[in-house]
Amino acid sequence: MALKFHKPTSPGTRGRVSLIRETTSKENKPYKLLTSGKAKTGGRNNQGKITVRHIGGGQKQKYRVIDFKRDKISVPGRVESIEYDPGRTALIALIAYKDGEKRYILAPAGLKKGDIIITSEDADIKEGNCLSLRSMPPGTIIHNIELKPGCGGIIVRSAGASAQLLAKDDDFAHVKLPSSEVRKIPLDCKATIGQISNIDHENIVLAKAGRSRGLGKRPTVRGTAMNPVDHPHGGGEGKSPIGLPGPQTPWGKPALGYKTRNPKKHSSKFILKRRKK
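^ thats the sequence. predicted structure below, dont judge the formating
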């Protein structure tokens, strides 16, 4: 991936930083059998109530069906193309398996068109191969990690993310996650080798409101600009402080740094080291 720093030829390009994607699909059309429609919700639930604010509009998208389980055991596959996916920050790879089936997977950094990948316990430790944590040597960089054997990868899936296998202890592996949390994961869980592609995604600068609207993000109004009836921070003459011991959400709950994790949560026993702030 390469970054493009735009010249300030207009107010909308001043400070703009975009990505030059290293995709191989020139037609920019996904594999039709692995796509489906994606309905817009506007942030509303099945009762029509807004449960997530600031969502609406945006470019029409199609959902790409991704193989997170990687359950095509011992069948080699060839990378047909590296493609853009509007539904996620990472790039995806179209894999054509030897038995004729095609599937999308998350593309790791360094994976190229024509590469061969496989899901197997005796697979080589190289980008794109998938095997259980039991078969990996300590120090391996991994992504798309299962938390229960066979459930499919559910963590470390966004652009540039990677985790590291630190050690193995009895039936568990110690894995350092991108948040710096160290967690115990069963050794029979599968993971994919390598770091997720599109590493420079975090350096993108949108530079104008219109690009946010194209992504389906609506404007965010500050609480201090509202009336007291609408937000705990509202009211006052001119530019007033919030007048509270700490910031609050629109519903009066503590915000910005308030710890909400239940200390009695069942998964706390698997966390060896909490994440850094």
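The longest strand covers residues 77-83.
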